[in-house]
Amino acid sequence: MKYSASKENYLKAVFHLQQAQGTVSTNALAAAMQTRAASVTDMLKKLKSQKLLQYERYKGVKLTAEGKRLAIHIVRKHRLWEYFLVDKLGFGWEEVHEMAEELEHISSKKLIDRLEEYLGFPDTDPHGDPIPDNQGRMRVSKAVQLQELPVRTTCIISHVGDQSAEIMELLNHLRLTIGTRLEVKRKFSFDQSLEVMLPDESLITISQHLSSNLFVKPEKNLALSGPES
Amino acid sequence: MKYSASKENYLKAVFHLQQAQGTVSTNALAAAMQTRAASVTDMLKKLKSQKLLQYERYKGVKLTAEGKRLAIHIVRKHRLWEYFLVDKLGFGWEEVHEMAEELEHISSKKLIDRLEEYLGFPDTDPHGDPIPDNQGRMRVSKAVQLQELPVRTTCIISHVGDQSAEIMELLNHLRLTIGTRLEVKRKFSFDQSLEVMLPDESLITISQHLSSNLFVKPEKNLALSGPES
DNA sequence: AAAATTTATTAGGCTTGCTTAAAATAGATT
DNA sequence: AATCTATTTTAAGCAAGCCTAATAAATTTT
């Protein structure tokens, strides 16, 4: 069965929102889809009648197994195309999101499987997000928010929560990319900002807003190993 | 300015039809678009109001300069994606048309220019049709219909007029591909069929219907050079 | 040239995905 | 518990792109 680009976008948005929230509200969806709550209610009824999600008036929404399967497949397409654009066509990781928003709706399953093979079965997209395999299995990322790390921890940036051009502009300016190694030096309780050290030993300050969007893999801290093994 | 996939498809269809016919009738368009004449009339009014084509009721239709520019750009995208699918992803030339019908509507101009570069600025798509450059210039093919060649001429298949799966099935069966060298051995006036010789010296018969869809580049006949140099 | 036929257009209606404005429900406040 | 407020739904309507049926114009036949 084929679904419209609009329906696919709703499924994808519910999928992403329910990662965080469990069940998704009409207003949250309207914000994510840049549309009005009334439009969302309309669409939820249609998607419910197609058994792609569970929906009770005034009670929010959750994907069914089938809805989730479809959503993951769209995420897979999005991330594989992003990888293609960066790795093969030489785009910057900050400029590929919009193009991938269109390419993710290309329907051929065979095409996306061949593309994955051509790209060498990459694990993650250029933003560090995991790429689901053709069975919908996604390697779970053990990344945590930079915000949550204690002082003196070393870590590596593994992905970026927000995908906006604005955050990309800031990250480029600070010379932060996927794979950059950081050490948390200080935390300021006043505004929850962090001071971190880059590989070249320079120090920069990161706002709470930014650090909550930076996901990192903690690195075993060689300098001081804690009490646990 | 961005146009819907449907509008782009109409422009492309008018472009292809007016190559042959000069001015295009409503019914011809309806057949090409697999829709009804009434729907075509509706759409022609919209495209006219956007100055993409010249249209007078009951008098058929022609693209304006701007409409033609857009149509060529869509053809460019279609053919570059086809080339990508065959050359990079390893699809057969007979299976890529449908996928390219979707991919041709991806809007980013930068993407298609980068893709062209990545592919090495190919001249023709896998069907032998010329790929317009990013200024819309198309290398004019000097190909003629196989049908029109005189007996004893040698030629090379350069492209295929029809893009259907049916013609592909037949060509695969006869082992005819772009680049195959042929010599016209006999012409039968009864049904306009041809007997041609393949590189392995085998002889096959080609119907008028097929030979009018096979475009060839005449090769200078080395065996017997005619009176003209 | 009138009649018959083909071709094209108009009229009215459907679905999808969106909108605004009004009404209903849920959740919070007193 | 009653009221207020925020959230959500319903109602009505619009544009795009399609449909069928009816009508009009052009073309062919007689």
Order of helices and strands of chain A: HHHEEHHHEEHEEEHE
Q: State the oligomer.
A: homodimer
How far apart the termini of chain A lie comes to: 52 Å
Q: Which percent bin holds the helix content of chain A?
A: 40-55%
Number of helices of chain A: 8
Give the overall silhouette of chain A. globular
**Strand segment tally of chain A:** 8
How would you state the average pLDDT of chain A, rounded? 90
Sketch the major β-sheet of chain A: 6 strands, antiparallel
Structural class of chain A: alpha+beta
- Biggest sheet strand line-up of chain A: 3-8-4-5-6-7
Segments of chain A where pLDDT lies below 50 for 5+ residues? 220-229
Strand content of chain A: 15-25%
Radius of gyration of chain A: 19 Å
Largest interface pair: A-B, 16 and 16 residues
Can you give a write-up of this model?
- Two copies of one chain form a homodimer.
- In chain A, 40% of the residues lie in helices and 16% in strands.
- Chain A has eight helices and eight strands, in the order H-H-H-E-E-H-H-H-E-E-H-E-E-E-H-E.
- In chain A, a hairpin with a 5-residue loop joins strand 6 (193-197) and strand 7.
- The first copy, chain A, starts with a helix and ends in an 11-residue tail after the last strand.
- At the A-B interface, helix 5 and helix 6 of A face helix 5 and helix 6 of B.
- The structure holds a DNA duplex (30 and 30 nucleotides).
